[in-house]
Amino acid sequence: MVRLGVEESFVQLTINDRGVGFDLNDRPAKKSGTVASVCSACATYAGGALVVNSAPRPGTEIVVRGPISAAVTATTGPPPPARD
Question: pTM score, two decimals?
Fold first, then answer.
C-alpha cells in the first residue's frame, strides 16, 4: 500500500508491504544498506527523515517525511535568481 499525505507543513509518503519482512539487525556484511543510507541522508538534508520498520513475517514499512517547502523545491527546482 502506498499513501501520500499532508500534515500541517509536512508531506509524508508511507509504503507498506505484507511480504516476509526482514530483521533490520541481521543483514549480511555485503548488504551495507547504501541505498537506505543515501535516502536517509537526502531526507535529512531536506529537513525530513526516512524510517524503515521491518521484521520477519509482518512485512516492511518505509516512511519518508519532509517539509512541504523541500517537496516543492524538489519538483519545481530552486527559485529563479532575483533581478535587479
Answer: 0.64
Domain ranges in the chain are 2-76
CB 61 within 8 A of CB 16: yes
21-50 pLDDT, tens per residue?
776 667 665 555 666 777 788 888 888 888
CATH superfamily of 2-76: Histidine kinase-like ATPase, C-terminal domain (3.30.565.10)
